[in-house]
Amino acid sequence: MPEPGSREPSSPTDQRRTLALPSSEAWPPPLPVSRPYRSSSPTAEGRPAPARPHRSTDLPPTHTAILCVALPGLAISTDQGQLTGQGLEGFYRAGRRILSRCQIRVAGREPLAVQARSTAADRARFVGTLRVSPGAGPDPDVVVERTRHADGTERIRLQSTAHRPLRLPVEVSLGTDLADLSEIASGRAGAELPAMVRDSGLCWTSSRGSASVTADPPPADALASAGLLRWEFELPPGGSVSVELRVRLDGAGPARAAGRAARSPLAGAEATGDHPAVQALLRTSIEDLQALLLRDPAHPADTHLAAGVPWRCGLAPAEALAAGRMTLPLGTRLAVGTLRTLARTQYPDDAPRSGMIPGPRRDAGVHLPPSCTGTEATLLFPVLLAEARRWGLPEQETEELLPAAERCLAWLRTTVGEGTYLGDPQSGGLVRCEFQAHAYRAALLGADLLDACGRPGGTGLRQWADALRTVFRKEFWIDDRGGGRPAAARAPDGRLVPQLGAAAVHLLDTGLMGGGRQAPGLLDKMQTEQLARLLGSRAMDSGWGLRGLGAKEAGYNPFGHRSGAVRVHETAIGVTGLAAAGYEREAGALLRGLLAAAEAFGHRLPEMYAGEQRSGKSAPVPHPAACRPSATAAAAGVLLLTTLAGIRPDAPARTVTLRPVSSAPVGEIGLTGLRVAGVPFSVRVSRLGLALVEEAAEGLQLGA
Q1: How confident is the model over 503-523, as a mean pLDDT?
Q2: What is the 3-state secondary structure (H, E, C) of 491-518?
Q3: Confidence bin at 34 (pLDDT 50/70/90)
Q4: Nearest one of 505, 661, 485, 644 to 571, comparing CA atoms
Q5: Taking Cα atoms as reference points, which of 583, 403, 421 lies closest to residue 508?
Q6: pLDDT at position 67, please?
Q7: pTM of the model
Q8: CA 76 to CA 389: how far, in whole Å?
Q9: Cα–Cα distance between 18 and 310 in angstroms, integer?
């Protein structure tokens, strides 16, 4: 796997990923099923493109793994605590496994694992016990506690509970293969490397580099042929002793996580309230976001989010922008770092796709061909800049990034041309529903941004957006006996793909404009009401969140990552859009479902989980290939809780408008340490749905 922070493929059609294997966005490979729409894009010889062959590779499951994350450092463990070298277990640095095996034996025996848990995003604690005293009965008399850090440090502490002195021989068996995560996941890691003794530990060398483990205190004996470090400790009754192991990739230096910097780009906000999940959800979400932070290697001051662990530890443009947008209540520094990083990847003016931000393709489920995430990223760029300005992005940084946003908007107008819809040239001209929603929002917020900054082009963007809204309401709506539904896509010949999925929530996500106003939606009032009813139905709402594809649709699979599984990001967008449109009952039901899922997952929401229906005392079923933590899922936790307060700032106008969810679906909630206009902002929403600002920037006025 490349160093986290490396750029995505330079072409939107490039199939390479951060890993040399399909990411969770393109996994599992689509089955060769009959589809309502099939791209007929010809090959260079003029023949129809052949169908992609079916692949049967399986990713190792990660749903039960304990992950310690502080990128570029990562540690993957099982609940046994011992690192055996099996599967994905080990310490990683920038996608390279620098230690695969770390097994401890005390008095010739392995400790019995009794507890394993994450104590923070970057740390885990494992507890084991041993009975070493002869004739001491069934009670253990030695406790082995291991604290594992993502930065490559492990502290082993032995505590005696015996009533007499103990002499404890301790052995730690170490090994590594220096393999890439992609090779390990696909079963091509190879054998362990031979060890060599170095200073107070061991080292391993291959053509890929070298890694070493040092111990404090130094071992009494080191055996390279067996990869063993040995100590012998004398413990008095109730005494303890500790050993610290440090694993490093030679030449790389300590793993300095961007999220552990003295000045984090994310504010340390806190939540309190009636619902037991809100405090832990916000705290865990911020911890996970900090763990996923990366620096642009060429511009270390600019940070962005990796898409997720363990499969997507690099920059994914669309996900980075989406997560940056959802975390604007925590400040604008992450947004500006993400925008700067992606602006440097933008196609130049003399390129065929001038202004576009490149991104890989994403599988879209069983009914549609893969989509281009570069298109989504290009449309998200001006939206994030426009909304970041409303939250308090300084004018100097806005002016710096404005040319890149203008090129994104110029790409939109050029791609649309004389038409109305934004097609997908990589899918034979297919017109996707969510692309129209992204394009419409980019046009309206982009026009608002251009006007506010005194730049031309806003009028043309608004005119196109108005034309799209008029045509979309007529041509993208399918009438039926149930009241109708928006189409998932429109083929070049006018045929509509009727399947209803969670992607429809983007139609409700209109964005924030000047004065705290929401942009008008693509759907009319009756269509919006019908969509809200559909999203709140049992077919779409699993009780844990929105299914990626309705349960009554052909091809529904509760584990299908785009055809039935609950994706946290889309559900959070649905909650926000429904609440803004006034459909609080449906928004509240989805919100409570996500909060219940968060509690079941220890408040660390995965990017997706099975869309099985909630019933009684059931729990959400994990998806074995989901990233956890995930940038969009962690950012969704921030969005969900700030949605309850309905914060709509306009920092340039020195105003902030509050539109809290009046039904107070989780009771009273207080949010402190948010950032509006670069200054801490705190708000409380009562059980009656009334909002009160408790802290704000001097001179910031409450809007109507």
Answers
A1: 91
A2: CCCCCEECCCEHHHHHHHCCCECHHHCE
A3: very low
A4: 505
A5: 583
A6: 96
A7: 0.90
A8: 39
A9: 11
